Amino acid sequence: MVETSDLVIFWAVVIARFLIPLSIPRYPLPGVLASLILDAVDQTIFQLFTNLPLEGYQGYDKALDIYYLSITYLSTLRNWSNLYAFKLDRFLFYYRLVGVAIFELVHLRPLLLIFPNTFEYFFIFYETIRLKWDPKVLTKSKLITAAALIWVFIKLPQEYWIHVAQMDTTDWIKANPSNAFILIAYAIFILGLAWWLIRDLPPTRPGLQIEALPVAGAPVLAPLPEEVKKERERLINKQVLEKIALISLLGIIFAQILPGVRATNLQLAISVAVFVVINTALSHWLSRRGRHWKSIMQEFIVMSIVNLGLVLLFDFFLPAYDGSINLENTLFFVLLLTLIITLYDRYWQLHTRNHVNSGNSGSGNSGGEGEKSS
């Protein structure tokens, strides 16, 4: 029988892994570092302080990893004023997501070396710069150089070590304690690269810019141009297509790592498209009647009810067509995706207003972070 203390520790960690990433949009660097650390130590906590079997946790662990990275990407919509940095980070995010999806389908570990998670560390680099500088000082060449250095000198060795060689750093050091000096030397080398990269930046600003500007404190911007409004009012537009692509990739990944999923990838993609279009249609219907979401929480609750209702309808009618779903896993999946869709919709509006109205939608650098982000 599972002890109560074990369950308390287990659920405390799981809830923390769900809630801490939600701090990333408002506190980007502390939030992402806390999520990264918790992801690294959660199973160690279980091993040290509980007697729980962890076999069933592996799938949910991977799902929560993808969830946390998705929230991290969405926070760039909300906060990043340097448009070229945003576009580069978006590419790195989807590049990794595609790689993970392919890996989960074919289970070839070298794929994770080909599709490294450069996105995460590039995000940390940008937010570290934002602590002391306005990110508009980051030119295209500096951003590309930063991404390349992270890719080659941090992520490739890490991905090889973890996924190809499947080595454990702690065991490696225990086998030969002098190996710790190799890690220290490499860390000094990485710090040297970081210094070389930022050595020519202008003088720092006073204090630390840890917190992103709250949405309520965002400046009131001019109305969107008519062509942008018309694009957003279309039921199928670029943002809807991106949401379908994003959620479909997440769905494929979740389907491979969560137990009991019986849908094919095509069925998942079609279901995701239906969910996204229905959610978008509902938002458009409300908008045309002059009603708008008062808060992210309100939108999330209403959309969750709608999507959970759709899931229950699927669960009711599928047996008549010799189909079925794992209701528990589906509800978990739908709640996570509803949250992601909600944040995407809200933050894309802020992203569009910041960059369209500031007139930098095609530039490499954008306006100052403290004044433009929201």
UniProtKB/TrEMBL annotation:
Keywords of this entry: Membrane, Transmembrane, Transmembrane helix
Keyword Iron attributed: no
Keyword Transmembrane tagged: yes
Transmembrane segments: 7-24, 93-116, 137-154, 180-198, 240-260, 266-287, 299-318, 330-348
Protein name: Uncharacterized protein
Organism name: Methanosarcina siciliae C2J
Taxonomic placement: Archaea, Methanobacteriati, Methanobacteriota, Stenosarchaea group, Methanomicrobia
